[in-house]
Amino acid sequence: MGIGDWLRSLFNISDDVPPPLLPPDAPERELIEARLRRSNVPGAALARVVDGEVAWVAGYGTTRSRRRAPHVTGDTVFQAASLSKPVTALAVMQLVEADRLALDTDVREIVAHPIPEHPILALHPDRSRRPITVRLLLQHRGGIIGRGTTPADHRTFLDEGRGGGSLRYRRVRGVRLPTLEESWRGSGGRPGVTVTYPPGTRVSYSGAGYLMLQHVVEQVTGRRFADHMDDVLSSFGSRAATFELEPPDHLPLARGHDVDGRELAGGFELVPWSAAGGLFTSAASLAEVVASLVRRDGLALAPETIDLMARERLGVAVRRTGGQTAILHGGDNGGYRASLTGIVETRAGAVVLTNGRSADGPDLRRELAEMVLASAD
User: Fold this and answer.
1) CA 306 – CA 292 distance, rounded (Å)
2) Where are the alpha helices (DSSP H) in 269-353?
3) pTM as predicted
4) What is the rounded CA–CA span in Å between residue 3 and residue 159?
5) Cα separation, 49 vs 373, whole angstroms
6) Which tens digit of pLDDT belongs to each residue from 104-159?
């Protein structure tokens, strides 16, 4: 064997390396990979939960768009984007169960930085100063919009349901990320986080609210958020997941791609608002979380706590149709799309992780989730 052949075999880039075998119940490789190609997405990892247990995990396509890239497996790690939020919510609920945090505590009493009020608040008929509670932040009802900033046209904004995930940065040489304090106060031309409308009066999807929860977790535990979440993820049984800014080298990473299927500079975006969008995870690890949610045990949480999360939409979306209750969340970062689904009554679930943004991303992840859920029927 020549040195070139040896290197190709070492890094799994040989032309004749076959894709990993699929579990018997997994959707056909040709079907899934054809769907991925239509969306300019190199690869996907899918997982199926049946009767509260992980039934199978499978990989399709490749980790990169370049030739001879490694195949995706169920243990390949993706940036999970806003699937970070339900995992963060589970960590918060662990602190609540341990009596280290209360759902109705005003976070102004915990965070180390002031939370200013935007002038737009004066336009609201109810100007009373309401608490910004942990419960409201988990529900995206904390009065802090999307990324914490407010458009110039205040009056138009009041009539719109705007939201937003997390601030993200290109992973390029010389990039400077804001500190937590700079995220609060604003820096580099970005305005700081402000209260825009009275807490509890409306829902607005809010990455800035989860940035606030990230800081709450650090204040309560006295630890870096990523360090605390390492222990939380271990308690979930997650074998390959992290909230670090960059995943460790030993984790097999699927690099992100733009809408045209081109690999992102640096492979993925940097997300210092980790609680809102910085989770790296495999489908196998995330499927264990979904399985525990629909089984109502595990996750180091009591069944009553998991019920409360679903009932009050604490970190998750809930949709009730046809007599079934679905726990849902989607994720969308620059180079990735993702989703998780859990059906409470049947204790079924699906995880979808893809390494392409794709113009039809919401349709793609919905179709893939439907294929997964139908695979064992």
Assistant:
1) 9
2) 274-277, 283-295, 303-312
3) 0.90
4) 65
5) 8
6) 999 999 987 788 888 778 777 776 678 999 999 999 999 887 666 655 555 555 55
